[in-house]
Structures are given as structure tokens and as C-alpha cells.
Design a protein that fits this description.
The chain is an alpha+beta fold. It is 31% helix and 23% strand. The chain has a single domain, classed as Ubiquitin-like (UB roll) (Roll), CATH 3.10.20. The N and C termini lie far apart (69 Å). It holds the Pfam family ThiS.
């Protein structure tokens, strides 16, 4: 019997939606400044379960032993500055920008 949304197989649909929400996603990372130096590369592709810029940065921070807390960074997703808790989508390009000195 269909559920209220008209789905004949709601339990199957719900499971596939749940699987998609926890499946690892690939993000394209671009690094600058001290993050680039610690990572030893300008860019890389990462497969992760992170869903927000902040959770993604925490994984990268641990991986490369980065000293900057997320609160000191700016983050851009697909060329647009974004919030720490915005959702990331599979295939996004993510850039973490550390503080830059000037004078």
C-alpha cells in the first residue's frame, strides 16, 4: 500500500535516502599559505564523511597537524565565501584561507 506521499515502497526509498546521506563524498581541496606548506601540495581530492566546511577542516587539521583553529580561517566553496555549518555537496571545491599578513 502506498504511503501518504504516494510511494509504493517507502521503506526501500527511505533506506536509500539514508544511505546517500551517510555515504562518503568527494571534495576538491585547494590549499594556500601555511596550510599548503603543511599539506605539501597545492590541491588534492578527498573522500570523506564530512558534511560541513567546519567538519571537513577538522579532518584536514588532524591529517596535516595544522595549528590554525577553524575560527581564524575563511572558507570558500565553489568560489563563494560560506558559513562553517553550510552543507557541502559531493564534488564541491573547498578552499580554506588562513590569515594573511600585510603591511
Amino acid at each position: 500500500m502506498p504511503d501518504r506521499g504516494g510511494n509504493r515502497f517507502p521503506s526501500i526509498l527511505n533506506r536509500s535516502e539514508e544511505s546517500a546521506s551517510v555515504a562518503p563524498r568527494t571534495f576538491f581541496m585547494v590549499y594556500f599559505g601555511p596550510i599548503r606548506e603543511k599539506a605539501g601540495r597545492l590541491e588534492e581530492e578527498i573522500l570523506t564523511n564530512a558534511r560541513t566546511p567546519e567538519s571537513l577542516y577538522e579532518e584536514i587539521r588532524k591529517k596535516y597537524d595544522l595549528e590554525y583553529p577553524f575560527s581564524l580561517l575563511r572558507v570558500a566553496v565553489n568560489g563563494t565565501f560560506t558559513n562553517p555549518d553550510d552543507s557541502l555537496v559531493h564534488g564541491d571545491t573547498v578552499v580554506f584561507l588562513p590569515p594573511f599578513g600585510g603591511g
